Amino acid sequence: MPALIYWTIPVFLAFIALELAALAWRRRRGLETRGYERTDTAASLAMGVGNLVVTAGWKTVAVGLLFVVYEFRLFEISTTAWWAWALLIVGDDFCYYWFHRFSHRVRAGWAGHVNHHSSTYYNLSTALRQSWTSPLFKVWFYLPLAWLGFHPLMIVTAQAISLLYQFWIHTEAIGRLGPLEWVLNTPSHHRVHHGANDEYVDRNYGGILIVWDRLFGTFEPERAPARYGLRKTFDSRNPFRIAFHEWTDLLREARATPRWRDRLLLFAMPPGWRPHREDGSGGGRPLRGPLQNVASKGRP
């Protein structure tokens, strides 16, 4: 998978140049757009490079786990038939939906994923603002594909295809796409996902397809302009701070929590969950969406 991503880096940069031109054209027509900011873009690119390093180091373990499960596969699935690849792309996207939903609705997952939502800008460089710790969680959601009989190298190729698809939807330069909006994840749908607006939080988790969100009740169409960024104030351009600030907050809260059970729940519950305290605060059912993520951002 990383090798495919490496080959596409020049394409990413070329599309960023095209987006800059398109945004300049929109500004000349009086259309509002945030565009790019130099230090924010540099931080996103640094996060992307860090993600490639982590992925390259972790891929041996991840692919090894897929091969272990593949030994117990239920079916012999062709590695060349078109229908096998079509089924795999759909299956991969289904797994991605649940991995992405986990990354927003479980505090440990959010600690890894929050950096992708930390920019107040929304452009193609934001797509490269990838996590340094989420890859540690990702493989577990794809093991069922290997168990069904999809070859591990097919699976990592499908993951790369999904990641490449999601690059182009991080833009304000493309409006709505008509009937395609019913099936595919589009820039309009993904702007909602990145929005910190109350109605946009924890919505539109799909990768290539938007049908899972429609089926599982997490779909929200784009109506009001999205407000990008986290619910808390966060404006660091330091890649290490971007990558680990939520982990730092989570570990600090865990150390300050007396009971071990509550410490573990801090990692497993949604981002806004807090244990009951003697003054009656915390605990209960988790708050919804970004309001729950006062230490983070909330759902997209």
Task: Describe the fold and architecture.
The chain has helices at about 1-30, 40-70, 80-105, 105-115, 125, 135-140, 145-150, 150-165, 185-195, 210-215, 240-255, 260-270, 290. Helices cover about 55% and strands about 0% of the residues. Helix 3 crosses helix 4, helix 4 (about 105-115) runs antiparallel to helix 11 (about 240-255) and helix 11 (about 240-255) packs antiparallel against helix 12. Mean pLDDT is about 90; it is low at about 285-300. The chain is mainly α and about 300 residues long. About 40% of the residues are buried.
Number of strands: 0
Residue-averaged pLDDT: 88
Q: Sum up the overall morphology in one term.
A: globular
Contiguous helical run count: 13
Main beta sheet = none
| Percent of residues in helices | 55-70%
Distance between the termini: 25 Å
- Going by helix content, strand content and strand pairing, the class is mainly alpha
Order of helices and strands: HHHHHHHHHHHHH
How big a fraction of the residues is strand?
under 5%
- Uncertain runs are 284-300
Rg, Å, rounded: 19 Å
